[in-house]
Design brief:
Layout lengths: L4 H10 E3 L5 E6 L13 E8 L2 E8 L2 E10 L7 E6 L1
């Protein structure tokens, strides 16, 4: 199955590299009620290692919150910790 060019382009645009060379998945949210008490319009996700994910919430390109999710193994089946950075 061949994906449409527009779908491939959108997928490429959602994956970029941050200033440290980490892969970032960008999620744009028009309804920012997922995190109570924090207004945001974008979530960037980085994967610093095989067991850690860092979610960076921004509003108009200003960081308003960072959340680190840590798993017990690279399989990411068991959550070890969720922490506000």
């Amino acid at each position: 199955m061949t994906l449409s060019k527009s779908l491939l382009d959108r997928q490429r645009e959602s994956h970029t590299l941050d200033s440290n060379g980490n892969t970032v998945v960008r999620v744009v949210n028009s309804d920012s009620d997922l995190v109570i008490g924090v207004d945001y319009d974008t979530i960037d996700t980085t994967f610093p290692n095989s067991v850690t994910e860092v979610y960076t919430y921004t509003l108009s390109a200003v960081v308003v919150l960072q959340v680190q999710v840590t798993y017990t193994s690279a399989a990411k089946k068991t959550l070890l910790q969720v922490a506000k950075l």
